[in-house]
Inverse folding.
């Protein structure tokens, strides 16, 4: 890569990914719920809307918020602090909405008085730092990946890895695994996949936002994992695709449930979501890890929004829902440009029907 290209990548990172690590404070409008561009309601019409949670969709939420700013009227603050912290924030009523890549169960939603709905779909990828191994060149399957993160496979030239990569010269470098150090929905989806493909992993560690990792080093949020991989020769870590793509990191191919080698892309993420079954009655809690299909990416995931059924301020609540409505109706091209999959229109229709039934102020529906 030339120095000029490297600088351009750095600019792209600062504009899309690094911005997601800061509190996003942008003007956003109380927009129309029609499919056309929303119109502003005028300055001071509503108070600030605040949200916190998953870093997985943060690059997309940053861009959506910036575009929504152009039709300003509402101040929107989103803090990408991780799924676990986002759940704590909404349950503690310190924000108007939480965001999590690990869906809550229907029982937990009912207990807390929350509803949950998907806002976007993306992919978790394996980023690597290996001399002489380029993007998409390394191939890994689920059982081998689980052994790497359990510490059973310790070097990159291990016979198990070499057998999957005939003709590729693998270094004898020691493997350093990099994982999330915070409570993370990305970790939940990654360990859900490992549990599905490895009985050993499932019995020892299972699937969770927080794992007692047997080895490796931790990184705070997606960006922390990406940075640790970039700075460590022989490292491998799991990150949301945008963090790897925007920084030019090498990613691995994976063998999917149908036994096919696939690379991470918008198309393979969409293929994994194609057969998903969504149900409002279950809080839309759909897991996409290890989905069947010849072109499905094995670690696709939905990202969810959490809000209270019983809202305190009707104007503020409707402004918040109008932003989410705008992302469904006007945000697809932005999502695709960052390699996220838009939520299907039949699903967003179900979501907005739920808003009309369940989101109220003193018993009066807020939506539409």
């Amino acid at each position: 890569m030339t120095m000029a290209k490297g600088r351009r990548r750095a600019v792209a990172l600062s504009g899309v990914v690094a911005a997601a690590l800061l509190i996003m404070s942008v003007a956003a409008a109380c927009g129309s719920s029609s499919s056309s561009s929303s119109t502003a309601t005028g300055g001071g019409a509503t108070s600030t809307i605040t949200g916190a949670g998953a870093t997985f969709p943060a690059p997309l939420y940053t861009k959506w918020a910036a575009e929504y700013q152009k039709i300003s009227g509402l101040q929107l603050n989103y803090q990408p602090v991780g799924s676990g912290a986002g759940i704590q924030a909404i349950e503690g009523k310190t924000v108007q909405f939480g965001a999590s890549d690990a869906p809550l169960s229907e029982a937990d939603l009912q207990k807390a008085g929350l509803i949950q709905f998907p806002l976007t779909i993306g992919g978790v990828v394996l980023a690597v730092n290996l001399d002489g191994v380029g993007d998409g060149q390394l191939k890994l399957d689920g059982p081998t990946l689980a052994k790497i993160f359990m510490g059973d496979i310790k070097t990159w030239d291990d016979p198990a890895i070499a057998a999957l990569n005939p003709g590729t010269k693998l270094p004898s470098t020691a493997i350093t695994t990099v994982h999330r150090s915070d409570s993370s929905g990305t970790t939940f989806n990654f360990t859900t996949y490992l549990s599905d493909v490895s009985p050993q992993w499932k019995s020892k560690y299972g699937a969770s936002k927080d794992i007692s990792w047997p080895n490796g080093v931790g990184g705070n949020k997606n960006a922390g994992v990406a940075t640790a991989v970039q700075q460590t020769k022989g490292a491998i870590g799991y990150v949301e695709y945008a963090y790897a793509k925007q920084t030019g990191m090498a990613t691995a191919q994976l063998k999917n449930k149908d036994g096919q080698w696939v690379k991470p892309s918008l198309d393979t993420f969409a293929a994994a979501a194609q057969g998903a079954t969504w149900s409002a009655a279950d809080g839309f809690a759909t897991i996409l890890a290890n989905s069947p299909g010849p072109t499905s990416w094995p670690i696709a995931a939905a990202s969810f929004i959490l809000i209270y059924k019983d809202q305190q301020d009707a104007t503020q609540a409707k402004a918040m829902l109008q932003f989410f409505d705008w992302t469904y109706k006007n945000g697809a091209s932005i999502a695709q440009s960052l390699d996220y999959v838009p939520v299907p229109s039949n699903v967003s229709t179900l979501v907005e029907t739920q808003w009309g039934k369940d989101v109220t102020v003193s018993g009066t529906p807020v939506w539409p």
